[in-house]
Write a structure and sequence with these properties.
313 residues, mainly alpha, Serine Threonine Protein Phosphatase 5, Tetratricopeptide repeat, two-stranded antiparallel ribbon, 14 helices, 2 strands
C-alpha cells in the first residue's frame, strides 16, 4: 500500500492530501481519506474499502490516484477482486509515471496475480509508461522515492505517539530526534540534486519525486529555506513546482523571520493550548491571495485544525 502523506502546516499535524497537481482536496475529503487509511492500518480491510468508496462517491468519482491505489489494496485484502481491479485501472492507467516494481512487489495485491486481468493490467501500465519513462531520470526517481518515504514514515507515527504517551513524553522526544536525524540525511541528498540539476519538475522525476524536493526543503533549517526560495519561485513560473507549495514555503520563511505571513498557512499553539494562526498580512484579503495560489478558503483550512475562522471585516 502507498502511504504518501504530504505535509502542509508548520504544526506537527499531518493529513493525507493529494500528490497530483490538478486535484485540491476538501477538508471532508482529507478527513475521510485519513479514516480509511487508519482502518487499513488496523487491518479492518472491509470497512477501509467501504470508506474509500464513500470518499470517491462524495467527490463524484474525483480523488488522487494514491487514494485510489490504496482503495484497490483494501478491496483486494477484503476479497473483492472486481473492485480492486476497478480502482487499479483508475490509479495506474495514466500518463503519469508509475513505479511498476513497487506495484509488482506489493503483497496487498498478491490475491490478484492469478486473475487473468492482472497480466493485462501490467501490460497496459508498461505500454503507457514507455514514453514518459524516456523523459524521466529514473535513478533520481528511485532515490527520491526513498527520500519521501523516509521523510513521511516517522512523521506518520506522531499522532499515535502523542495520543498514547503525550507531547512531552520520552517516546515523543525520541521520535522527534529520529525525524531530525533523517531530515539531515534527506537534506544532503536533495541539496545535491538541486545544486546539480535545479528544481526538477514532475515530467522529469514524477509527482512523488517533485513533492520530495518540496517536503525536504520545507522541513529544513531557516537559512536553507531562504537560499532555495528563489529557485522554487522560478520553478513555479516554469511549471516545475506547485504554487500551493510555494505559498507554504513563503509563509514559513516569513514566520521564522518574525514577519506577517501572506497566505495563512502557518499555525502555532496558543496560551490556551488551542491552535491559532500566526499574524497574517492584510488579513481581509487573504482568501484572494490564497485563490491565486490554488489554495482553498482559509475558513476550510482552519477546520482541519479544529478552528472556526472568520475573515475580519
Amino acid at each position: 500500500m502507498i502511504r504518501f502523506i504530504l505535509i502542509f502546516s508548520l504544526l506537527w499535524k499531518f493529513n493525507p492530501v493529494t500528490a497530483q497537481f490538478n486535484f485540491i482536496p476538501s477538508p471532508d475529503y482529507i478527513r475521510i481519506s485519513s479514516s480509511a487509511l487508519t482502518l487499513y492500518e488496523e487491518k479492518d480491510y472491509g470497512r477501509s474499502a467501504r470508506t474509500y468508496d464513500s470518499l470517491f462517491r462524495g467527490g463524484k468519482g474525483k480523488g488522487n490516484r494514491f487514494d485510489k491505489y490504496n482503495a484497490a489494496c483494501a478491496w483486494a485484502l477484503a476479497g473483492n477482486r472486481n473492485k480492486a481491479f476497478l480502482y487499479l485501472q483508475e490509479s495506474l492507467i495514466t500518463t503519469e509515471w508509475v513505479n511498476l516494481a513497487n506495484v509488482l512487489a506489493d503483497s496487498d495485491l498478491d490475491s490478484l496475480h492469478s486473475d487473468k486481468r492482472w497480466d493485462a493490467l501490467i501490460r497496459q501500465v508498461t505500454t503507457n509508461n514507455v514514453i514518459p519513462e524516456a523523459r524521466m531520470n529514473k535513478p533520481l526517481m528511485a532515490l527520491l522515492d526513498t527520500v519521501i518515504r523516509n521523510d513521511q514514515t516517522d512523521r506518520y507515527q506522531m499522532d499515535a505517539v502523542q495520543q498514547q504517551y503525550g507531547w512531552q513524553s520520552r517516546q515523543m522526544d525520541s521520535l522527534i530526534k529520529k525525524i531530525d536525524r533523517q531530515d539531515s540525511v534527506n537534506l544532503v541528498i536533495v541539496k545535491n540534486i538541486m545544486d546539480t540539476h535545479g528544481w526538477l519538475g514532475p515530467d522529469q522525476i514524477g509527482y512523488s519525486g517533485n513533492s520530495a524536493l518540496f517536503l525536504v526543503i520545507q522541513h529544513a533549517d531557516s537559512l536553507t529555506q531562504v537560499n532555495y526560495l528563489p529557485l522554487m519561485r522560478e520553478a513555479v513560473k516554469k511549471g516545475s513546482a506547485r504554487a500551493q507549495d510555494l505559498a507554504l514555503l513563503e509563509d514559513r520563511v516569513l514566520v521564522r523571520q518574525g514577519k506577517e505571513q501572506i497566505y495563512g498557512s502557518q499555525l502555532k499553539t496558543g496560551p490556551d493550548g488551542r491552535n491559532q494562526f500566526y499574524p497574517i498580512r492584510d488579513e481581509k484579503k487573504v482568501n484572494v491571495r490564497r485563490a491565486k495560489m490554488g489554495l482553498g478558503p482559509l475558513e476550510d483550512y482552519a477546520r482541519l485544525f479544529g478552528l472556526e475562522y472568520v475573515i475580519p471585516k
